[in-house]
Specification:
- The structure is a homodimer of 726-residue chains.
- With 726 residues, chain A is α/β, with parallel strands linked by helices.
- The first copy, chain A, has a seven-stranded mixed beta sheet with strand order 9-8-11-10-12-13-14, with helices on both faces. In chain A, strands 20, 25, 26, 27, 28, 29 and 30 form a seven-stranded antiparallel beta sheet that branches. In chain A, strands 2-1-5-6-7 form a five-stranded parallel beta sheet, with helices on both faces.
- In chain A, a hairpin with a 3-residue loop joins strand 25 (590-599) and strand 26.
- The radius of gyration of chain A is 31 Å and the shape is flat.
Chain lengths: 726, 726
């Protein structure tokens, strides 16, 4: 018995529901495309009134098809889709591609219709692709349900939320040699089958060498992270996520009706799962093809081999702009280069052959061999005019150049080191480039695309080295540590939030909730004043605004107690006041913020940044999806621009970064254990050489919990309602 | 009498010195290229032994040529170049292109040879192009001294410091329709003729529609700024400056021997002069062509017209990434769009036709017309599949699409609004695109290049609006305010630096230099202690290190005086101590830094940033070339990332930014008046709501001045030595 997803993506029997005798109709063209595209399975046209279409006998209903149907292409109007799916009740239909628009992407009425078809499909065990999709193609099998006839065959699996973008990618690939697709899935509205459900199919390396995703919004971002995490070690995934800008988001909304999340969060969590994310659509195809065809790099050290100082310098700049390194070469490498190059050449990286190849391009191969052999080199970028020597100088050079290309490819393969070629003659399409491309070497006119390819190979290789450190992105709820019933207005008081943190042995500054002036005075003495004092009320969220905070209290803590309570009462006469929180004053250290938020697409994510203006003005923060591994937490601290401050740049000493790692992991545990948490804000956390302390904490619960606590529903219901990101 | 530069760039008589009968030699090929490329002037081969070459009679020396020579191409070995130039003594040779390498780019010996040829050339009134150049081409006149035969004719003037990069640009342009060159100058080592000297020629709009510069280093960056400033209002200039990264710089050095400056400074001063600078070489040709062919934009508001939500969203993201806006459309525009588009379309910007053009691409023209008419729209980006409807659907659509293209071009021209087309079918080269390109509309497959074009048009247009605010970048030295003889070790003491600032009425915190403990006590009282006290010694630069600073002194200023002097003596027993500087303590306000430095390429530049970590860790600073206009100074303050802090983000009020503008302009005046100044550092300057105060100041003089003051040379000599950037 074949798996459902295999039957959908490698269909042997296809029903075309809404088949037509009219050659201008989609229901006719689809059949024509299947017949002419070499599809060897069985095609069943379905139409209540026709008898034969394009030589095939027609079934009047899908239910009349005499064998199990792997995939039904449904091209009927949206109103008719439910009845077609109803007709699948008593037969075996694995999947149905619903082309029609006017569902969830259009508003309330469409959403209702979408709910309907999902319901019927599930009842009848039919998985849906779409609706609002251009279709699905298995290129190698000729199972083309789109009608696009220009899809070059190759090794890329494409999951795409825009039909026109798919056409653009097909056209772009067709203009390159050796770049093509194994599959195309227009995932559409993800009403039933969602992005992540296609990934396991491709994790099998025979299906595709890389998965290309154009995403407007993920219906279940958390599941995508989890599946991607498992797929990536086998098959690289490249994502272009649109809606990065506010305007783009607006447009993405009106397009598929899915919610585009924050670009910073998406970039961070994709990277965490090993997904390569490109922020410019121009790079999507090139980067995907490089990952599909070239070995990943262990590290980011690139040797540049250029014919001319101009190209050498520009290549070095372009690599540096993407944080790739241009390492020193070994002395032996330089000696080998010196042997074959003229005196004017530069044999340090970037290597400039300085005319040394003008008469004899085979020198390129000698140089490349030396570079591939250098242990400092993880990848090679050949930049300039290679492939154009026969055009630029004399025809005699072409065979020499071709032989050099063959040699270079062999050296690269022998050392398992990736090679990318940037050539000004790419548009002239010389045979030299064909030799390179037939050996899977990317060749681009664009320096930027060439460097983007190397950058992705470095990112992918780095991920493969560290991927063992994490089990999964699944949220396995632990023992709950928060009782939503205790929260008022969905917010825990600072006191309650700190009690929760205590359960995780988090380094909270000592605190005591006092209820009388005398207790305050005693606590101040015990804490060895100066102390900080704050009125605690479930009804007052903005304590400073209420003038209910006193810092640096050295004496008369009893009077201060009374002032604070009085101020709180003045601010809100109805406010319940639990008492005053007393803590010793802390000032030494660097203020950092550790927080968490529930992302609409990816669920709980943890945030780290330096306090004050660093967050507010520079937005210098790092995100990761919970659960965090320790290495996730370390990478967050390393990632922020202000990181040098934590290392003691301004004359101070380095703060205890491992203690910060622990706090980040605690917040991660807290949000995983308690799906009801919407936001955590530990601000400030004071980080010093000898440890860190959490000075203030707030925990906000999700709206669901607020509603339910207000109406006094049981805690269990609250928890099960709140966990919409599990 | 024609101008020398006109004779060089539009030569009527060309001498080829080193002409050869051997067809494989450059001295033969050059003549062949001139003959076959349609050059209608006179060519004189020069060779001591041949009689005729390619049918032309040969002169045995350049001095034997019977008429004035506009341009001599010198292809002899480097050692022979001086004697060829000697032979120009008694004849009229306007310019000579020296191809040979091995001059200033190679080291001391080469530099000497370069000095020699400059000397001889100047004596004989010959201007030099190169050496170390691939040559020079006037494309329209067939005056091709390079031998490259693939140079498409067009309207771009190319000044280039890499021959291979020029070949790459020629090849790239040849693959596009309608993009080409009027001139190519390989500026080489700039030994004599420098980058800026070619600009005035192109300022005449008939010569070229845009100037394209590939720069590794500018021999005289200041002169380039000045000439660019005057050229840009007539003819836009685009610069790609390599050597941005540390590695790139290294490589640029070994290539042309010129010193690549700091990328941040270069970007800032280019922009100040109205030069469009591209940081990726991929963009150089596209951006130049857009500026040459499309009208500049008054502002940065772009209407997107896309056939598909995917392209609409990606285009919006790409525009946002370059700070271009996607404005609301007028209600009337939306109504017009609604009339011609289906219900599923989005008529707010970005406009998504949502299939409304599939059957009838003329709808594109209707939509475009509405967008061009909208007063909120400064430019239009058409993105998606336009030009491919005949390919994608049926051939019948091609004539409709072509008519639409013609209409769109007409609407664009009528409203003087730029249009850029991004199309997935660019590589298929449909006639629709030819129509667009023939009307100068850029068409690219790359979304990024398309957006780069619009971004450059916005930047150029914005500059044209503000260009009147500055007269020039010339450094007109005013009255000198610094006497280098007073500086020790090239540094002014804080006291002396503040005295200099006083001459400009700069807002320095009150200060007094006291020489006795009693004076210190009195001063502290007069300044209404607390005060800051610092020992002043020309021999102690690092006062804090010497423990010679006391802050917040409230009492016993006499004792503090003695402590500071003692500490200074302990630190350096030989140090001369001028006394102690007393100032009232200031703490209210935001710390900013105002500085200046003498850039190796561009001369004096002024810097602004927030103090402390903002400069040290985030490197969040703005540069401009002095002299600053007030609007330059304002733009520096607006440019830094931390700018919101000056507006009172954190609950404070906005600081007095006009007072900051004055301080920036003062520093600008100071460095322009005193070419001997190498660095100015006002740090901190405290900026508050009611004004700013300079708390500390240091002024460093150039090495030349240090040497000369040490040897007690006269002040006049010092000044004339120091002003190497005038």
């Amino acid at each position: 018995m074949r798996k459902t997803i295999d039957r959908i993506l490698e269909p042997e029997t296809i029903a075309v529901v809404g088949a037509s005798t009219d050659p201008s109709k989609r229901g006719h063209q689809a059949i024509k495309t299947l017949q002419e595209g070499g599809f060897e399975g069985t095609v069943y046209p379905v139409n209540p009134s026709a008898e034969t279409i394009r030589g095939l006998s027609v079934c009047s209903s899908i239910s009349e098809i005499p064998e199990p149907v792997d995939l039904a292409l449904i091209v009927v109007p949206k109103q008719v889709v439910p009845s077609v799916l109803e007709e699948c009740r008593d037969i075996d239909v694995a999947g149905a591609v619903v082309i029609a628009v006017g569902f969830g992407e259009t508003g309330d009425e469409g959403e209702e219709l979408e709910e309907d078809i999902i319901h019927i499909a599930r009842q009848n065990n039919v998985r849906l692709v779409g609706p609002n999709t251009s279709g699905l193609i298995n290129v190698h099998e000729g199972a083309n349900l789109v009608g696009a006839d220009n899809v070059p065959a190759g090794e890329l699996g494409l999951l795409c939320q825009s039909g026109n973008l798919a056409i653009a990618l097909f056209t772009e690939a067709a203009a390159l040699e050796g770049v093509g697709f194994s599959h195309y899935v227009g995932v559409g509205n993800e009403a039933d089958l969602q992005f992540h459900e296609y990934l396991p199919y491709f994790a099998d390396n025979d299906k595709a060498d890389a998965i290309v995703c154009y995403v407007e919004g993920l219906a279940d971002g958390r599941a995508f992270l989890q599946e991607a995490h498992e797929t990536v070690p086998e098959t690289p995934i490249v994502v272009c996520k649109s809606g990065r800008s506010a305007v783009g988001k607006q447009s993405a909304n009106s397009h598929t009706g899915s919610l585009a999340g924050d670009a910073a969060v998406a970039d961070a969590v994709f990277s965490q799962a090993g997904v390569i994310s490109v922020d410019r659509s121009d790079e999507l195809l090139a980067v995907s093809d490089a990952l599909a065809s070239q070995p990943p790099m262990d590290d980011a050290n690139i040797a540049i081999l250029a014919d001319g100082g101009g190209h050498a310098t520009l290549a070095a700049d372009a690599l540096a702009a993407r944080d790739l390194s241009v390492p020193e070469l070994e002395a032996g490498t330089k000696d080998r280069l010196r042997e074959v190059l003229p005196d004017a050449a530069s044999v340090r990286n970037p290597v400039d052959v300085a005319g040394g190849t003008d008469d004899d391009p085979s020198v390129f191969a000698d140089c490349a061999e030396a570079l591939f052999d250098d242990p400092n080199v993880d990848g090679v970028l050949l930049s300039g005019l290679f492939g154009g020597y026969g055009i630029r100088f004399t025809d005699d050079l072409e065979p020499i150049e071709k032989a050099a290309a063959r040699d270079i490819v062999t050296f690269a393969e022998d050392t398992d080191t990736p090679l990318v070629v940037q050539s000004a003659y790419e548009s002239a399409d010389p045979e030299v480039h064909t030799i390179l491309r037939e050996s899977d070497v990317p060749v681009y006119e664009s320096l930027d695309l060439s460097v983007a390819c190397l950058s992705a190979l470095a990112e992918y290789g780095t991920h493969l080295k560290t991927t063992d450190e994490r089990d999964s992105f699944n949220l396995e709820e632990g023992e709950r540590t928060i009782d939503p019933a205790e929260a008022t207005n969905g917010t825990l008081t600072e006191y309650d939030a700190k009690k929760v943190l205590d359960q995780y042995d988090a380094p909270v500054t000592p605190y005591e909730l006092v209820e009388t002036p005398m207790e305050a005075k005693r606590a101040a003495v015990e804490f060895d004043a100066p102390v900080a004092m704050k009125a605690v009320s479930p009804d007052i969220v903005h304590k400073t605004e209420a003038d209910a905070v006193a810092l640096e209290v050295t004496e008369d803590a009893d009077d201060v107690f009374q002032d604070l309570v009085e101020n709180a009462r003045t601010y809100d006469p109805q406010a319940r006041i639990d008492g005053v929180l007393v803590s010793p004053m802390r000032t030494d250290g660097i203020e950092v913020i550790v927080g968490a938020t529930s992302d609409e697409q990816f669920g709980p994510v943890v945030m780290f940044g330096l306090g004050g203006v660093f967050v507010e003005v520079f937005e210098d923060v790092a995100f990761r999806a919970a659960p965090l591994s320790k290495s996730d937490a370390r990478s967050m601290i390393e990632e922020i621009d202000a990181q040098p401050l934590l290392n003691g740049t301004r004359g101070g000493s380095s703060v205890d970064q491992e203690a910060l790692v622990d706090v980040l992991c605690t917040v991660s545990d807290l949000v995983v254990d308690n799906p009801v948490v919407e936001e955590v804000d530990l601000n400030p956390v004071l980080a010093a050489e000898d440890g860190v302390e959490i000075l203030d904490a707030s925990i906000l619960l999700s709206n669901e919990s607020q509603t339910t606590t207000h109406t006094m529903e049981s805690e269990n219901e609250v928890i099960s309602d709140g966990g919409d990101n599990e």
